[in-house]
Amino acid sequence: MRIVYLDCFSGISGDMTLGALLGLGADEQEFRNQLAGLGVGGYELTIARRKVEGLMSVDVDVLLTEVDTGHGRHLSDIHEIYAASSLPARVIERATAIFENLAEAEAKVHGTTKEEIHFHEVGAVDAIVDITGTCILLEMLNVDAVYCSPLPYSRGFVDCQHGRMPLPAPATLELMAGIATYPVDVRGELVTPTGCAIVATLAGPANIGNAPAMTPIATGWGAGKKNFGTEYPNLLRAVLAEIPGKSPKAGSNGASHDVVVIETNVDDISAEILGHAQEALLGAGALDVTMHAVQMKKNRPGTAITVLSEPSREADILKVLFRETGTLGVRRRVSERVTLERSFAYVQTPFGMLSIKQGFFDGELVQAAPEFEECRSAALAAGVAVRDVYQAGIAAWDAVTGR
Description:
By secondary structure, the chain is of the alpha+beta class.
């Protein structure tokens, strides 16, 4: 099983996590391309390399280009952003879970519900980019699980929208429930709410502690913005590693996880509405939507709709099905989905640089194809057929690999 171990000897924040994961070798341009699929503007992302206490690290900064009104966002706003995005399902699932935990922690601190809470600082664009970017990089690195060291418990105060708060910040301390910590003689915020939410959600108490027995593959260093002195170099270390055993519910031939299959039959809606329903279901996070003709009772011609959904998106999928199709009931079952391990290669073509998505089965490359949207964009820019760009991508990949 492939893991990332986050060594938080000087704490953790969202931008430090991005830097450490990028330092593991994830492709920067591909990361930027996928982050653009979030559909959120108002920021510029800077990624630089610099030495901290002699160690080469990656320094990531989210620079806001629009004025922050200070109103924050509700949890429903976060869900809408992800529903409208083009991000992979597991990225959305992980990121949504992090924000859910943040909302619950903030709600408990402020005595309200997670639906009513305003995220304030953690709901700002930079935190959305930090959290989503972290999940994108974990997917790019094919990480099955996240492990983390105990978190340092610092002291002092932090100024936020609600006034001066003791450290750890109240929401951070709520997120630390059940997590191993240790005291450090540092005045300043070592663990931010965003950083704590990432590890509390993706690692959890069970995976927070000493490093597991593992075979390291790569090491990345993420730089923080503050200076705590040479005793506490403000860095986060990420170790990409393999550990004995298999991915949860994974066989030797591919990774697998549970999905929900939702089915219903309808016989009283038009083709136009069916087309709209399919788009709405995909927009709500469906992994796949298929439709085929069936013969229903009283010899009525109808349409069978089958939707594949991550468990975390099932409620949203059901809402769309009932609202858009008028069906009175659905059938559901939990099924195991097996997927190829994926990675990207990059080739130069007469139409520019193209990414090639590669699929591996039991460690063997079995699929390789250019990304269609890239081919379409390049074809429109060059005024040629999409198939010409697609074939150029395949030819360039064959030339590079010798296949």
